[in-house]
Design a protein that fits this description.
By secondary structure, the chain is of the alpha+beta class. It contains five helices and seven strands, in the order ααβββββββααα. The strands form two sheets. It has a four-stranded antiparallel sheet, with no helix packed on it.
Length: 192
Amino acid sequence: MSSNDDYDKLTKEERDARDKADAQREAAEQAALPYVWKQELGEVDITIPVQKGTRARDLVVVIQKKKLSVGFKGKEAIMEGELCKEIKLEESTWTLEDQQTLLIHLEKLNKQQWWENVLTHHPKIDTRKIQPENSKLSDLDGETRGMVEKMMFDNQQKQMGKPTSDELKKMEALKKFQAAHPELDFSNAKIS
């Protein structure tokens, strides 16, 4: 993977082409996994197709704070390894649906962080490209939602080399102060 410095030197067309290629490669890597997963800021949901007619007692599912193992009794695991981040054990569950789909719900310990992958040895996704579903943003209470939107805004600004919302506020405050005190010289003032 190339560094972000290279990326910043590319034209918009080159960036779009690279983003598209990265997205396709990422999609292919994810499609090759024996499961499908999606996440919200606070949770991860994993769907594993299993043989039709499978019963819960045929499965061995071990969910630990930082490990996950899924498989059939007496057979090799379907997926096994260290989780990307820690989970809340008491709120993480698994169920078997229609005797053919295993659903695993993991509650993240840190609810302000996107996961790059489920298991640390599996291909990573680019978490900077995640667009949270707007409907889900509206589920958050006002304060949390404001914080998430601010984080998203600041992240985008940083990637574009523009000032974050806090820096913009400081610049705005300084402008107001300058306007109110035209007799002071701010030409050498440093904003920290």
